[in-house]
Amino acid sequence: MAVSNETSELKAGTGAAQGASGAKLSALFAGTMGPLIGLALLCLALALTTDTFLTVRNILNVLDQVTVLGIMAIGMTLVILIGGIDLSVGSVLALASMVMGYVAYPDYLNLGVPVGIAAALIVAGACGLVSGLLVTVAKLPPFIATLAMMSVARGLANMITDGSQIVGFPDWFTNLSIVRHFGFLSVTVGLMIVLAIVFAIFLNYRATGRSLYAIGGSAEVARLSGIPVKSLTNWVYAICGLLAGLAGIVLAARLDSVQPSSGVGYELDTIAAVVIGGASLSGGIGSIGGTAIGVLIIGVLRNGLNLLGVSPFIQQVVIGVVIALAVATDTWRRRRQ
Amino acid sequence: MSLDPHTGESPHNGLFVNGLCKSYGPVQVLADASFEVRPGEVVALLGENGAGKSTVSNIIAGSTRPDAGTIIWRGKPYSPANPAAAIEAGVGMIHQELKLLPDLSVAENVYVGRLPMRGGRIDRATMNAKASAQLKRLGLDVSPERKVRTLRVAAQQQVEIAKALTLNAELLILDEPTAALGGEETELLFKQIRKLKAEGMSFVYISHRLDEIAQIADRVVVMRDGRIVARHERADIPVRTVVEQMVGRSVERMFPKLSAPGTETVLEVENLSSPERSFNNVSFSVKSGEILGIAGLIGAGRTELVRAIAGADPISSGAVRVAGQPVHLSGPAAAIRAGVVLVPEDRKEQGVVLEQTIGENLAIGNFDHVAPKGWVFPKAVQRFAEAGISRLGVKGRPNQAVSKLSGGNQQKVIIAKWVSRPPKVFILDEPTRGIDVGARAAIYDVIADLARSGMAVVVVSSDLEEVLGLSHRVLVLSRGRQRGILDRDEASNIAVMELATS
């Protein structure tokens, strides 16, 4: 009796799971139909106007070019989901990469790249945690807290080497972003994809991830429901900082150098990618799937405009227009519903 | 018929609404609405949410255009294109959510958009003097230079009325003006309405509080489903009659029959005080199956008290025990673990995440149930939501956004969130605020069921009928102090009000 019950439940379960796999995919990209269509149209237009866009080599190039932005955007998605903002990611990226260079480079501490990476991640995570504490304990608005951190981290990044860059890392390190394993996947691109999948699962299927949506929807409702809003907020900023640090290490591998002036303005690109991906700056709405599309739109747009020989100045104009268009269509669509 | 069919002339100089219709897409929200308001008269407009009261008011106040129908105001056809045109014609509306600029002064709010100027600069002296005169006319003693943010809600409302007066309003539409007022403040408002009425001003008065109607209205118009279903020439009609007309069926019993409480004491509160002194030395206990009502005027500390018991706000001294075990009130999470749950006062700000689905709202706070080892599966949430929906009779589906539900159903979602734990102590703060009369009975049934299932229930309400009808005992607070606990048979309107105003 019990056995037959179990099997019938099992059958019902698998049936539902099959039915739900489509639903899951759509849940992953929930609310991102607009951006997805935008990305498809963009790719189509570039495929028609250039012979080089739709080549494996170029697609891999785009992926390489968006790794830094993509990794930062994952952290920013979490922050924006809970109704916050992090303006410090560009500076934290620079600080983390300078810490790594300083710890690893023979002329300075000479402790090797792995120790350097660990130190960089710790410093970056600590920066994020401080931003979080400024928000939760000192009650500063996230904009101000992270604006302060943006300035402090940039200053610290410059202080480490008194403003000069550090060039030349071991080959194995720079190869992380150059050597394409299985013919297509560099370690850094793989890292970005794995992180995106891990965080997408976290946000969709972990209680803590779902709690972030609740906090963004209404922090007071979340608090009264027993969700530890303050500690989760601290964690989110810490993880955002940590991922910005990781992006700094990826950038170091790509450039074979670290400089304290790197990452200026990256925070705005990152926010743009998240917002183009359908997230709401007032919190509670957004997804990793959407952010991935937002990152790709920015990446493909830059790449395509380069292929078309459009000047970088005009590129900035175009990207600005795309941000406005993306959010305007989204707002318009929501209002119509 | 109010209009003379031959001459089209009106027998008086007031407002005639004739056959107003309004549809949004296929939904007709207003069908052939006709009524009149004579000069110096208060007409109460009653009806459930969605009955069409707001639509009629908005048309008269110029913020909505009708599809058909006419209005005659002061003997002339009147069809305001926007609120400014309505104000120009002497028609003002005081909305339920006050539309003031909190960081500007009282006088600036009264004269915003038409600040008196002299030599290109704002003439503050004139502005303050004029505003002051209008405030005095209302019997309000506040400085015109005070920032509106620092005023109590009741005083803010009077600033809005003063503003309407300076605009020479002769017809004022008041939308739920007493929703946020306490007893004394309501009395003051009524006094002002009577005074202005004597000066010839007309009022359309929208309210959910039926007991007020007899006090303030001259005539009553009842609406249901976009139609006017009854007109009463006098206001002292039985509440039962009005309610039945509003809901369109007979209301057999508003309050459910309470079953006798158990013997086991579940909640004990001992000498509880708040750091801000919003309540002091409050002590009471609630048995299993018992409903304790907490009554008091606005600002008596009722909400602060129950929030503290639910861990939402800190306490400065005292103790709370649940089933004999002391509760460490470090936050809502600790209280929930101890079995104390709260349905908060402000449903939309504190109770539900509006843009999320019913399922998601139910999952928040129940991840220990729906997410074993922290994994949330949509199917588990769906199943949990379906159980909660059917247990509370919520009219909705698990994947429906909570913002699309009526107030009563939203409230049921919040109750459903907690009911399955099951909690030991269930606290409800203003459980029927802003909820239709018809839907309230369902909430009362739910509350009585909670008690019947053995929980200790605490209900805070500004609606005295509700407290009296729903509670085994009533605790009365006044200015943060506990004035007494009345048993059901000794708790009457008068007994409670005497304690509440002491």
Model description:
The complex is a heterodimer of chains A (337) and B (502). The termini of chain A are far apart. Chain A has 14 helices and 2 strands, in the order ααααααβαααααβααα. Chain A is mostly helical. A two-stranded antiparallel ribbon of chain A has the order 1-2. In chain A, helix 4 packs parallel to helix 6 (142-160). In chain A, 76% of the residues lie in helices and 1% in strands. Chain A has one domain (29-330): ABC transporter involved in vitamin B12 uptake, BtuC. The model of chain A is unreliable at 1-23 (pLDDT under 50). With 502 residues, chain B is an alpha/beta fold. Chain B has 3 domains: 15-247, P-loop containing nucleotide triphosphate hydrolases (Rossmann fold, 3-Layer(aba) Sandwich), CATH 3.40.50; 253-339 and 424-502, P-loop containing nucleotide triphosphate hydrolases (Rossmann fold), CATH 3.40.50.300; 349-420, no CATH class. In chain B, helix 4 packs across helix 5 (153-166) and helix 14 packs across helix 15 (407-419). The longest helix of chain B is centred in the middle third of the chain and has 16 residues, at 183-198. The radius of gyration of chain B is 25 Å and the shape is globular. The A-B interface holds A 16, 20, 23-24, 27, 204-211, 213-214, 217-218, 220-228, 284-285 and B 310, 312, 331-333, 336-337, 342, 344, 349-356, 360, 363-365, 367, 371, 374-379, 417.
